Amino acid sequence: MARFQIFVTYKKGIFDPPGATAERALVSLGYDEVSSVKIGKFIQLEVADGTPEARVREMCDKLLANPVIEEYRIETVEGA
Amino acid sequence: MRFGVVIFPGSNCEQDVIHAANTLGYEAEFVWHGSTDLSGFDAIVLPGGFSYGDYIRCGAVARFSPVMAEVIRFAGRGGPVLGICNGFQILAEAHLLPGALLRNRGLKFICREATLKVEPSICQWLDEPAGTLLRIPINHNEGNYICDEETLARLNGNGQVVLRYCEPDGTRADGGSAPNGALDDIAGICNERGNVFGLMPHPERVVDPAVGGTDGAAIFTAIARRLAEVV
Question: Does residue A63 sit at the B interface (CB-CB below 8 Å)?
């Protein structure tokens, strides 16, 4: 079994309402050093050994992320 | 005139669409999401609700339902397709309409009447004169329409923006009149051919005068008139 971790976030320029709210909340709690909060999704995928990353990318493009508004980063988890 | 109203697991406005169509004197029947047969229908409606629990993104799973391949073919042949609320989200995910619907800017689920201005558009689902105001309820958490600048210019240039949110008197506020933060106050758009129409407001809820208005009837009667002309 192989494991991939996928991080989905809004593309640059797409307003992220939950992120903006968390940012305002942190600043109002006194964390003045906060200048940006982005909230996204974390997806952990377990697949058959030898599954190429290109195939995971295809899953992201098709279903897990919406390329119109989101971008994603795939990380391979070693020793899964 | 016979509407096919698709039911996905989690749809919850399909009965209202059937009731609206029947109230106006049209036939309407349910189409199960596993169906691949749309024969006998003049127009297809994707109703509101929470298809597949809105998991991953609203409409992201529903777009792969067996019926959607057929809806895409139906639209490709010029068949009229209407997506209301979650139905609009499904049409966007299926790339039958450009752009996407994000979470409402204020993070709140919004359920209230909205004033909409009819734009000069090529949409087959609306033939009210531009500038007409329609009062139709909205009921959503992800209605914040977004697209890139190039797409927006194309939508505006082609007459694909069908409805815009506005103030009760028809003006648009400087900071935007969309209660959900939608780009350019967009409430509904159509495709380049004008046969596929998606909107966040719920016209089916304001068709029967017994439940608070009839402004939504315009959507259903326009497509029926248009199809009658074509035949």
Answer: yes
Mean pLDDT in residue range B192-201: 98
* Residue B188 reports pLDDT greater than 90: yes
Alpha helices by DSSP H, chain B? 14-23, 66-76, 86-93, 149-158, 217-230
Residue in chain A nearest B62 by alpha carbon: A63
In percent, the amount of chain B with pLDDT more than 70 equals 100
User: Rounded CA gap, B9 and B7, in Å?
Assistant: 7
pLDDT in tens, A22-44: 999 999 999 999 999 999 999 99
pLDDT in tens, B67-79: 999 999 999 999 9
Given the residues B14, B58, B166, B202, select the one marked as catalytic: B202
Which candidate in B95, B102, B180 is best for mutational testing of the A interface (most A CBs within 10 A)?
A: B102
Q: Is the CB of residue A25 less than 8 Å away from at least one CB of chain B?
A: no
Query: What would the DSSP string read from start to end of B48-77?
Result: -B-GGGG-SSTTTTGGGSHHHHHHHHHHHT
Q: Which of B148, B150, B152, B189 to mutate to test the interface with A (most CBs of A within 10 A)?
A: B148
Half-sphere exposure of A41 (CA within 13 A, CB side): 17
Query: Is CATH 3.30.360.10 what the domain over A2-77 is classified as, yes or no?
Result: no
Assigned superfamily of B2-230:
Class I glutamine amidotransferase (GATase) domain (3.40.50.880)
ipTM: 0.85
Delimit the domains of chain A by residue range: 2-77
Query: Which residue reads 């991953």 in tokens?
Result: B56
